[in-house]
Amino acid sequence: MSEGLKVGDQSTSFDVVIVGAGNAGLCAALSASEQGSSVLVLEAAPESERGGNSRFTAGLLRIAYQDVEDLAQLIDLSEEEIQRTDFGSYKAEQFIDDMARVTEYRCDPDLTEVLVRESFPTAQWMRKKGVRFTAAWGRQAFKIDGRFKFWGGLTLEAVGGGPGLVDSLTTAASKNEIKIWYQARATSLIADDGGVQGVVVKHLGKTTRVRSRAVVLAAGGFQANTEWRTRYLGPGWELAKVRGTRFNTGDAIRMALDIGAAPAGNWSGCHAVAWERNAPEFGDLAVGDQFQKHSYPWGIYINAEGRRFLDEGADFRNYTYAKYGRIILNQPGQFAWQIFDAKVRNQLRDEYRIRQVTKVTANTLEELVGKLDDVDADTALKEIRVYNAAVRTDVAFNPNIKDGRCTEGLAINKSNWANTIDTPPFEAYAVTCGITFTFGGLRIDTGAQVISTDGEPIPGLYAAGELVGGIFWFNYPGGSGLTNGAVFGKIAGASAAARAARV
Ligand SMILES: Cc1cc2nc3c(=O)[nH]c(=O)nc-3n(C[C@H](O)[C@H](O)[C@H](O)COP(=O)(O)OP(=O)(O)OC[C@H]3O[C@@H](n4cnc5c(N)ncnc54)[C@H](O)[C@@H]3O)c2cc1C
After folding, report:
1. Which of 42, 52, 60, 146 could form a disulfide with 479 if both were Cys (CB 3.0 to 4.6 A apart)?
2. What pLDDT score was predicted for residue 141?
C-alpha cells in the first residue's frame, strides 16, 4: 500500500507508524496490521527495557462479564476450578457506575461507554492474537468456606502478568511482520495542512524521518518527567517515586500539542499509590509492582506527627489505592507507616513479603512506635490507643464485603474492616507516594482520532492509552489502564489502517 505515498522522502515509509510499544501501541499495531497495513512501531527504550508501564503491571484487566461462561471464553477453566470458585459477574452497568463514581462523574461519557462496551470483545480479540489469560485468584479472591469468591470487579489476569502480556503481544507483532525499532525516540510529527504525514525519530542516535499515512500515538503519560510533574500536578510532585518506566516523559503529548491537538482531562491529576519509602527513583523490572503496599484496609496509617490521616477502610482497595498516593505525598516528609497486628498478618498481600521492604516488628505498642523512623512516638502511641477504643468490635470483621466494622467518634473514622491493633507481634511498613501515570492528555473521539483545539479531527493522527485525557479523573478503578490501552489501541489501529487505505 505504501507505493502511492505522495509525501517527500520515500526512503522509509509505512502505512501506519505507532509511537510506543506498550500494551496500547502493540494492540494498535496488531489491529492496523490485520487490516492489511504495513506497520512500524517506534520504541524509545532499548529492547531489554521494552514494554513500557505495561510490563510493570500485574496484568490485571477490568472487563465486563455476565458469568463464568463468558470468562470461559477467555480462560481455560477446569471443572474443578469452576467448582471451587464463585466468579460472580461484573456487568457493564457496574463498570460504568464504578467509572462514574470514582471519577466523581467527570469521565467522558462517550469514551467510557466504548471502554466498557468493548472491554470483553477486546479481551477475546487479544486471546485470538495469542495473549493467554487466567483468573486473578491470588490477588482478587478470598477463600470462604473452602470456595474462592471474587470481589471488586477485577477477575481477569494475563498469564505471566505484565511481562507475560508484553511478551505475547510482541511475539504476535513479529509473527505479523510488524517492525519494531528499539532505542527509537519519536521527537516530532511531520504535518501539513493535509494532516500528519509521518514522524521524526532519533533511532540509535541518528535522526530519521519516517513517512506514513497515519500515526498512532501510544507513548504513555508524563509521569517520568520531573519538570512536567511539578508544572502540572503541582509543587511536591518532583518528590514522588515513579512506579514504572523511565521513558514516559510526555513526548507524544507534546508532539501532538505542537501541531494543534487539544489537551483534555485531569492535567493536575494522576494515579498514585502507597509505595516502598526507599524504592528507587524509577521502577525496577526485577521487582515489578511489588513495591506497592496495598493491604492498608486491614490496618492503619500513621504519619510523621503520629496521626492517622485518611479512612483506610473507605472502600475496597481497588477503589481507593489510586488516590491515596497523593494524600501520602501531602504528609509531612512525604511518608507514612502502615501498621498491622498479628490478627491480620496472614491476610497481607505477597508484596509485604519481598526482601526490599522498610519494615519494623515489635512485641509491644510502646516498642513499635519507638521503632518508627521520623515519627512522633508519644502521639503515635496515643493515636493507636484512641483508635483501638473507637472500634465497633460488636460488628464482625469480613474482608469480602464492606463489613461496616467501623470506628466511631474519631476526627477521621475508619468505615470498614476496623480491627483493633492489640495482638503482638506488631508490624509496620514505611511508604511514600509512587506515581503510576498521569491522567491529563490528548482529546480523542470514539474512533481514537486526535481532536484539534478547533474541535476538528486531525487527519492521520490517532492516540490510545495513558496519553489520552478525559477518561480518568482523581481516581481510577483498578485494572482499567490495560483495558483502556487495549480497547482504544485496537480502535486506533483500525482507524489508522482505514485512513491509510483511503489516502
Ligand atoms: C507498577 C505498575 C502496576 C500497574 N498495574 C496495573 C494493572 O495490574 N492493571 C492495569 O490495568 N494497569 C496497571 N498499571 C497501569 C498500566 O501500566 C498503564 O495504564 C498501561 O500499561 C499504559 O499502557 P500504554 O501502552 O499507554 O503505556 P506504556 O505501556 O507505558 O507504553 C508506552 C511506551 O511508549 C514508549 N515511549 C515513550 N516516549 C516515547 C517516544 N518519544 N518515542 C517512542 N516511544 C516512546 C515507552 O518507552 C513505553 O514503552 C500499572 C502501572 C504500573 C507502573
Report:
1. 60
2. 78
Q: How far is CA 158 from CA 75, 220, 480, 483, in A?
A: 10, 20, 14, 11
Q: Are strands 263-264 and 133-135 parallel, antiparallel or unpaired?
A: unpaired
Question: Which of 17, 30, 57, 439 has the most ligand 1 atoms within 8 A of CB, as the residue to mutate?
Answer: 57
Using CB distances shorter than 6 Å, the residues near ligand 1 are: 19-25, 42-45, 52-54, 56-61, 185-186, 218-220, 243-245, 247-248, 251-252, 283, 289, 436-437, 465-466, 479-482, 485
Per-residue three-class SS string for 214-278 = EEEECCCCCCCCHHHHHHHHCCCHHHCEECCCCCCCCHHHHHHHHCCECEECCCCCEEEEEEECC
Report the C-alpha gap between 300 and 105 in whole angstroms: 29
- Residue 426: how many CB atoms within 10 A of its CB? 24
278: CA distance to ligand 1 center in Å? Answer: 22
Q: Which residues of the chain have pLDDT under 70?
A: 1-11
**β-sheet bridge partners, residue 188:** 200
The whole-number pLDDT of residue 238 equals 98
CA of 422: how far to CAs of 152, 385, 429, in Å? Answer: 29, 9, 17
Rounded distance between C-alpha atoms, residue 379 and residue 369, angstroms: 9
Tell how strand 206-217 and strand 359-362 pair up: unpaired
Scanning 137-239, the segments in alpha helix (DSSP H) are 137-140, 161-175, 226-228
- What pLDDT was estimated at residue 465? 98
DSSP bridge pairs for 362: 426
Q: How far is CA 425 from CA 341, 362, 363, 376, 388, in A?
A: 6, 6, 5, 21, 16
Residue 286, SS3 per DSSP: coil
| Protein residue whose Cα sits closest to atom 19 of ligand 1 | 481
Angle, helices 480-502 vs 23-34, to 10°: value is 30
Cα–Cα separations (whole angstroms), residue 265 to 256, 270, 394, 467: 15, 11, 44, 10
Q: How far apart are CA 432 and CA 338, in angstroms?
A: 11
- Give the whole-angstrom CA distance, residue 448 versus residue 462: 5
CB distance 470 to 267 below 8 Å? no
501-to-12, 172, 495 alpha-carbon distances in Å: 18, 23, 10
Tell me whether residue 104 is exposed, middle or buried, using C-beta atoms within 10 angstroms of its C-beta: 0 to 12, 13 to 18, 19 or more: exposed
pLDDT of amino acid 11:
60
Question: Whose Cα sits closest to atom 3 in ligand 1?
Answer: 57
Beta bridge partners of 230: none
Say how many C-beta atoms besides its own lie within 10 A of residue 205's C-beta: 6
CA–centroid distance, 432 to ligand 1, in Å, is 21
